[in-house]
Amino acid sequence: MYQIVKKKTLNSNTKLMVIDAPFVAKKAQPGQFIILRVDEEGERIPLTIAEYDREKGHVTIIFQEVGATTKKLGLLNEGDCLNDFVGPLGVASHLEGLKKVAVVGGGLGCAIAYPQAKALHEMGAEVDLIAGFRNKDIIILEDEMKAASTNLYVMTDDGSNGHKGFVTDALKKLIEDGNQYDAVIAIGPMIMMKFVSEVTRPYGIKTIVSMNATMVDGTGMCGCCRLTVNGETKFACVDGPDFDGHQVDFDESMRRSAMYKAQEKEATEHHECNLHKMEVK
Amino acid sequence: MANMNPKKCPMPEQDPNVRNKNFEEVALGYTPEMAIEEAQRCLNCKHKPCVAGCPVGVKIPEFIALVAEGKFIEAAAKIKETSALPAVCGRVCPQESQCESKCVRGIKGEPVAIGRLERFVADYAMANDTTEITVPEQNGHKVAVVGAGPAGLTCAGDLARLGYKVTVFEVLHTAGGVLMYGIPEFRLPKAIVQKEIDNLKAMGVEFILNFVVGRSETIDDLFADGYEAIFVGSGAGLPSFMNVPGENYNGVYSANEYLTRVNLMKAYKEDSATPILRAKRVAVVGGGNVAMDAARSAKRMGAEEVYIVYRRGESELPARLEEIHHAKEEGIIFKFLTAPLEVLGDEETYMVKGLKCQQMELGEPDASGRRRPIPVEGSEFVLDLDAVIVSIGTSPNPLIRSTTPGLETNKRGCIVADEETGLTSKEGVFAGGDAVTGAATVILAMGAGKKAAAAMHEYIQNKNK
User: Fold this and answer.
1) Residue B113: is it exposed, middle or buried by C-beta count within 10 angstroms (0-12/13-18/19+)?
2) Residue A83 and residue B173: Cβ atoms within 8 Å?
3) Is the CB of B256 inside 8 Å of chain A's CB atoms?
4) What is the ipTM of this complex?
5) In Å, how far are A214, B184, B237 from B260, measured between CA atoms?
6) pLDDT tens across B173-207, in order?
């Protein structure tokens, strides 16, 4: 069992948890992820490792409550335990040798982009961090991101924080202003990663994306998370999750992600219904 | 006087049209009376040809003699002397090509039903044996087993019996490997596998689940932690795909994914948290046991039509005869000499809508000794479907080979290991099962685990002289 040692609400539907998992903390690297199962009856879901403390044996995860499993997870409190927590999984991000980088995070993706930015910043690279949110109420990790970057640009779709626009607008402007990036690292919803890749493509800037495919085991034994990269089938869980954004077939990946939409909706409604029953009691 | 009936005592089974709608076990097992009757068919041969056909050398005539006398618990103990998982083997071994293929009674009539008797004895002991499992005397040496599948469990059991402190590292949340995620409940009830694993725990074997050897710790890290020898039984879990157009449409599964969702994640239960498509028309591509398991599972998940699409003929099917027979009884439709060309999908929904196939004919034997399928010109046709399950084989996962310097692998990604000892190119590292052979059978993996355990014992003894 894996104990929740800390829980923090970041915004209305995003939570942070620190989990006691020494075997995961021991070798975790930025870009890697874990798979967890809340309870004996639960499904396996992948979440990125947001931070780790090797000495304490702690691993931080940040998740958005989007469906039955993440809502169930969000209900747990400090001291409660998760049934299963396995990792680190996936290949760590290749950050060596990068001197000037733009890290682009979208929504919850900022939690995933943050460890990369932090690692690059600690390695002495110049990091422009562009973080995008729908509105100012859901901005997360602003102070942490500020500390992990040279320049932080927080954008909101509606301009409610003063910087209106999409992350792609900010990135495009930085490139047009003459910033020479060794790489752009984009993490967030697939549609955002697709558009970031389209922004950088004409400039030939290397663009790394973190593919958040549907997964079951996360160890390469099923191919549920497969995607097409440069015409070849790859497994996001063992070959990735990082891939070259200019080579990924985003349209296919987005459609694969929607495969269980109807069932997910049903599971979430069923879960809400159960919660309601609990409250009525 | 032996029972000279030329036929095996039949084993009761669930009716095909009932069982193809549930996940309960198909074969119901012998009653004590049936077991005694069948045991009396054994001639107790002096030269025991059956034993030579068993990869773990079960003392077959001895245990059967005890069954014939009604000494079922003693019979179970006799099997346990050489086999770690009799309730599993009695169910899933291809006895027709192993022990039973060598049985003298098989020359004129059917061989003795060794598998059914082993199963009966193991089940009987599981239900009735109240003797506490004793922890063997410890010898003070630590060994590690990577992977809790049939090879690893057997190796762990044998080493524990020799007094080693054994730790098994497993990446999934449940031990058992393919016995848990692959072989369905209707062929191998999971409670039985769990009972066998619990017996190993009672003997002092420690299981660390959710542990990724190759990521959390490498093989070299394990040596640094004080393990004196390591057995790698990490299997061949990486699925192959067909590399035909349309393979990434929604509704195309690898058999591993489909079976993992159904078996390990229990997606066959209506209220399971893990989703699965409940497809109405399904094609399973391939002809092995895994293909039969996937097809029979799809039928039980409510599919009205389930096809096995196989590019060779019926006599070339690699699956066990009993499984093919069961599949046919349950209404699985076989499309022989049929090769998939393309998965067709709906451009709007991105869901599978069909499989374009081509008729084949058999030519001369190829390198594998089987007749090579050759496409028939102009024979293309389309099967209307809403799911395709790809079951054309698996290969070893690259995780351990890519993180263990000095561990030699061949071009198929299999670990190179001595057939008799499991010894690899790296000192102190032994390997066996599908990680070495590529996808094979449960009992061969168990045999490899057994041989490796003996070799590890010898290695540690010599090292400490």
Assistant:
1) buried
2) yes
3) yes
4) 0.91
5) 14, 9, 11
6) 999 999 999 999 999 999 999 998 998 999 999 99
